[in-house]
Design brief:
Distance between the termini: 30 Å
Radius of gyration: 16 Å
Number of strands: 9
CATH superfamily: Spore Coat Polysaccharide Biosynthesis Protein SpsA, Chain A
Largest sheet: 7 strands, mixed
CATH class: Alpha Beta
Strand content: 15-25%
Number of domains: 1
Length: 236
């Protein structure tokens, strides 16, 4: 199946080049890469355009979901992949994620972040925390029929199911957006959190805001979306 990799990017000139080199080096045969410049004021767009195999779009409405939805509407793949502009996937990442969609019931797959530029103790603790706790949380919230667990920058979605779910929800600027996507997507099939589908990502946000504070914000918004009414979390 063809894959469309969507990378929302706002002022990502520091990270984007390495990210694009990594995704273009994938050993998967049929995929496209779409960078959506979310009104950057630096060289983000120029860097993206320097890669001939990358499609570059512009989205003037600020917000990750606006950029992702712009990319989704231009995507031609049967699988939509969302990846952050600071991620460094191993060259078999797309192949691993795509394999899950051989099961027609699967509509979404996600996995942990490995924070490559974090201190070693935190990096080790974080990736194992995600592998264990997020896997268990996904089983629990699915059993409760409240949603599913997805990490936005490491997520694979069946394009037809995402379309049926209403696409990416532009009501969300950032916090809770991936949880909202998973909650609507799981209504159309199975969403898996695979602890072995790891992608390397930067810990820059944690360095800026503090790992504890950032983690608490993620957890708060996760539960806020999970236990909100379906009407509030649906696309309008």
């Amino acid at each position: 199946m063809k894959i469309s990799v969507i990378i929302p990017a706002y002022n990502e000139e520091k990270y984007l080049e390495r990210t694009l080199e990594a995704i273009l080096a994938q050993d998967y045969s049929d995929f496209e890469v779409i960078v959506v410049d979310n009104a950057s004021t630096d060289r983000t767009s120029d860097i993206a355009k320097s890669f001939s195999k990358v499609k570059v779009l512009f989205e003037g409405n600020k917000g990750t979901m606006w950029a992702c939805e712009r990319g989704r509407k231009e995507a031609t793949g049967e699988i939509i992949v969302r990846m952050d502009a600071d991620c460094l996937p191993e060259n078999d990442w797309l192949k691993k994620g795509a394999a899950f969609f051989e099961d027609d019931k699967v509509v979404g797959v996600s996995g942990p972040y490995d924070y490559y530029d974090a201190e070693k103790p935190f990096r080790y603790f974080s990736v194992h925390f995600q592998k264990i706790l997020y896997s268990l949380a996904n089983i629990l919230v699915r059993a409760m029929k409240r949603g599913a667990v997805m990490i936005g920058g490491n997520s694979f979605m069946r394009a037809s199911a995402l379309e049926s779910a209403g696409g990416f929800n532009t009501l969300f600027i950032f916090w809770g957006d991936d949880t909202d996507t998973a909650k609507r997507l799981v209504q159309h099939g199975k969403v898996i959190f695979d602890p072995n589908l790891v992608i390397q990502a930067s810990a820059r946000r944690m360095k800026k805001d503090g790992s504890f504070n950032l983690t608490m914000r993620y957890i708060f918004h996760f539960f806020k979306v999970i236990f909100s009414s379906n009407e509030k979390s649906s696309r309008k």
